């Protein structure tokens, strides 16, 4: 069973708000290195309330890695449990008046996506299959790595093993290349 969803977020905001966020994140993760129910609230600086972690924050836990890029920007990344921490990002953007552009992926559960918000308002929320996500993120590099995997690995036995959402993104030439890779595999 898959467990880890990888999240990556580029965050921009005022120096004062990022300083406050950074301080609260450091305090919240001092004892244990990940966020969970109570420490999510600690990072947000809001009172603890009852609820279900997945509904309130998007995931049960989040193992954050914060890297300041400049006075007004940074990258927050890390694994979360089974699903992205999009709702946590939305709350962060609301509390700290931030612009957050994020991506997430979980190959075991077959999904990936894009989530962007500004000052608590969702601007983009798109989830797709893992292969479709990777293809849209890396295009040619992902496609040719997949071709190599097909030719050298038995993880994929036919084109039917690849999801239709991914296949629909390919050009006719790319579809033909996939078929040829499967034919080479079955020789």
Features:
187 residues, six-stranded antiparallel beta sheet, alpha+beta
Describe this protein's structure.
By secondary structure, this protein is of the alpha+beta class. It contains 8 helices and 6 strands; from the N terminus they run E-H-H-H-E-E-H-E-E-E-H-H-H-H. The protein has helices spanning 15-28, 37-44, 53-57, 86-96, 130-138, 140-152, 164-169, 172-185; strands at residues 4-12, 62-70, 73-81, 99-106, 111-118, 121-128. It has a 6-stranded antiparallel β-sheet, sandwiched between helices. Strand 5 (111-118) and strand 6 (121-128) form a beta hairpin. Helix 1 packs antiparallel against helix 2 (37-44).
Sum this structure up briefly.
With 187 residues, this protein is α+β, with helices and mostly antiparallel strands.
Q: What is the topology?
A:
Blueprint lengths: L3 E9 L2 H14 L8 H8 L8 H5 L4 E9 L2 E9 L4 H11 L2 E8 L4 E8 L2 E8 L1 H9 L1 H13 L11 H6 L2 H14 L2
Antiparallel strand pairs: 1-3, 1-4, 2-3, 4-5, 5-6
Helix pairs in contact: 1-2, 5-6, 6-8
Helix segment tally: 8
Q: Kindly state the mean pLDDT as a whole number?
A: 94
Element string (H = helix, E = strand): EHHHEEHEEEHHHH
Category by helix and strand content:
alpha+beta
Parts with pLDDT < 50 across at least 5 consecutive residues: none
Radius of gyration: 19 Å
| Main sheet: strand order | 2-3-1-4-5-6
Beta strands, count: 6
Instruction: Compute the separation of the termini in Å.
Output: 32 Å
Strand content: 25-35%
Overall 3D geometry?
A: elongated
Major β-sheet, in short? 6 strands, antiparallel
Helix content: 40-55%
